Amino acid sequence: MAVNDTTDKARKNGSAELLILAQVEARPRHGYEIACEIERRSDGAVSFQAASLYPVLYRLERKGWIAGRWVEKPGQRRRRYYRLTLAGKKQLSEQRSSWSAFLEGIKRTAGLQDA
Amino acid sequence: MPDFLAYVREHLPPLGVSGERQLEVVEELAHEMQERYDALIRQGEDPQSAWEHVCRGIQWDHLGQQVGRALHGRTNYVSQFITDARYGLRQMFKSPGFAATAILTIALGVGPNTAIFSLLYGVFWDPGDNPAATRQTVIWQTHGTEQGFGVKGGIHVTARDLREWRRQSKSFERIDAIVQRQATLNDDSGYPERFQVQSYTPGTITKYFGARMILGRDFVEEEGEFGKSNVVVISHRFWQQRYKGDPKTIGKQIRLDGINHTIVGVIAPGWWDRRRESMWPALALPPEGQGNGNHTLTALALRKPGVTLEQAQKEMEAVAARIAQVYPETNTGWSVRVDANKNSWLSDRARSNLSLLMVAVSLVLLIACLNVANLLMARGQSRVKEIAVRVSMGATKGQIFRQLLTESLTLSVAGGIAGVALSFLLMRVFTGLMPPFFLPPQVSISLSPDVLLFTLGSTILAGLIFGCAPAIQMARLGVAESLRQGGGKSGIGQSRHLLGKGLVVLEFAMALTLLAGAGIVLQSYWNRMHINLGLRTENVLTFELPPNQQRLTSPQAVMEYNRAIREKIASVPGVSSVTASPVPLTGTGKVSVAVAKRLPASGAPLPQAALRLVAPQFVETYGARMMYGREFNDLDQPASLKVAMVNEKFVKQYMAGLTPLDEELVVGERKLQVRVVGVYGDIQNAEVFGGEIKPEVTISMAQFNVPITTMAVRSAVPSTQLTKSIAAVIHEFDPLMPMSKVKTMGQIVDEQTAFDRFEAALYGSFAALALLLAAIGIYGLIAFLVSQRTGELGMRMALGAGTQDVFRLVLKDGLKLATVGLITGGAGAYYGGKFLQTTLYGAQNVDPVALGAVALLLLTAAVIACVIPAWRASRVDPVESLRSV
What we know:
Chain A has about 120 residues and is an alpha+beta fold. Helix content of chain A is about 55%, strand content about 10%.
């Protein structure tokens, strides 16, 4: 992915999709859990509010990359859990490789240090 | 325990999905909020602040839109628009001051626009309630370039030609005829009264005009025959006013000009009640073979459905050619002109003035739009942060643009509604101020659905005009830029300044164009108000004493009657002189005339002059100025030497180098010889009131046996005080004589200038409105631009610039803008003025004084707009202002 192709919007939306897909790779999670995981793993650098999280979740579901299912556990409210589908898995690996290439390019070009 | 489920259900807008899916989304979002709330409580926050923390900053409309789109995979434009509009409305309520200002400004633009458009619509486009109105046609005869007394010089039709048209033409369903005249009405109401009446051939009222009778009937065919036409139809208003709506009015006997007539019908209420006439007697064409040379009829024809005006014209030309073959001695060279009836009677001047008014109010609306654009831009400044947040949350440029534009449209629709309310008021004021018969009677002015549609259209257009530029500006902000700028006070970049500057120039230009135009109209009005009439109008009373052809059969009898009645009136205490003559200022006759010594070579036409026929004491009664010689007296009789007076202009134009008194003139086709016995100062006699004075010849009505029945009385006391005693003397002299059209000379001048006054009032108020809007707008724009530079100015001061330097800098930039605006506006004013010059009397191309005054006023607004923020800027602590850089 060439740097000059990347608009603000595409990067933002693209990264949100990547981040969310990555959270449900290991096991199904519900919305709030996904938001918490992103915040925890990024040490608070990235956070998603409901307003930005759910539209992306629903879009991914509509594209068939994740699938939502209501799960009821005793003593708890029912929750909607999202799991990665096969198409989602493929998408995740594609996005991962294109993002690494992109970030590598940025690092080299802008002289960024690894954290 | 807070109920998030209820909270979300209440706030999330409809997503356009099934109810079940909507509830699922509500539940999921409520869970999310609940989890966050619980987490905060676990961290030790108190419930109130935890609740606020979770709920704060959620823009439900935006969220609903995003979720809706994610679920659909496409945009639901209707729900999106509703969402945007709701958001816009909420924004409006959040800053009521801004909203009120914007709405009021739009209303001030839309209101006059709607009102004037409804006027235009009523005159030009309103189909009315008669579907056949578009087929109504008027036919005139034409003869080379000869001008008749009909519309646009059309010549009235002879009875024989009308009959031929009826027989030969195929384009028309029917051809009717009307004749207009004055008639004296005598009925049991006791007092005789003079009325304008139109006689109609049977069927004109119900079949040509499509009128409905509320009582009685239209004329039947045989009432169009000679000797059977003594029947009359009256208007609803006349029926109510004169006969108190008595149903027994049908069959009632009245006398018109001394002839018994029977009232046979009352027309249903409507535009007929707004006409000058209230009575329509039946018209009988003269019997076949008579009146062949008299061009007296106005022909009204109803085209058959599907026949165009052009087709009818073509056919009628052929018909006219055939008639000319049969009657070569009377009809050679005669043709016809077929006009649409609608607005056929509207003068060119009224036509162009109405369009001009529409241009004026459109400019007012545009200026209002610019002002609102300016308001939006200034407010955009305070919304940079809000926009930035939305952009950071993933809103695209398109979304931001659409949102801002929707807000503008919401504003403009609100303003439009207020504007319609305003226009309703304005229309009442207009119709109240409007001189009588300003518009054709068919025209009704109302807020019809078509007018409202136009208003909706212009309102939306206005919203787009003032909303687009600021919306594009805001939408172009990148996240980083907007976040960076959102915190500070600095501007939104160079392009915004350019936009602002462009707006200043535009506003200057439009205001100047409009104001210069209005200035010309007002100046023309002023000129007309201050025309030298050549008369003294105070203490002059005029009225008509129509001759009764039944009793006074010869001109000599009328003349004698006239002389006797003048003598009676002169005996009323307070009356200083009496004359009979057509009222000056209301038109003159026309005659060919030449000085006998300077007759043109035989065959060459004689020059033209205006003609007056007057009784003795004309000059004295009207207060004209006698320059040389004498005016007519009772010794000037048919048998004595024929005498004439001429005006000053006549002497200048035709008698240069001669001593006018005792010169012989040759007058008219019959080459009558008259001797000049007097010269008087010019009396206003132009065809268009206030136009150029024409040479004028005045002859004695006694010597030429032409009885004039319009009287004028000059008195030592205000003339209205004498009306009663004059009426009493006339009644004593002749109880059957009506005294009609009683007017003071002042009233006649008022009538002649009523249209001008009305127009001047309209233009004047629109111009004042435009000036106010433009001054406010220019002030606001420049103040905004200068306030944007606070930081820069602070930096300059920190670097050592003095208060005066800052002042000069700001003023220089402001004036530069104003100058560009003034030059552009000057060009607009020049061309606008050129156009106006062709339609208005005495209008200079552009009045330099008025234009200068307007320019100065706008410039003052610009200077004040520079000075106040510059002063503020120079007072700001440099450190403080630098922070905003």
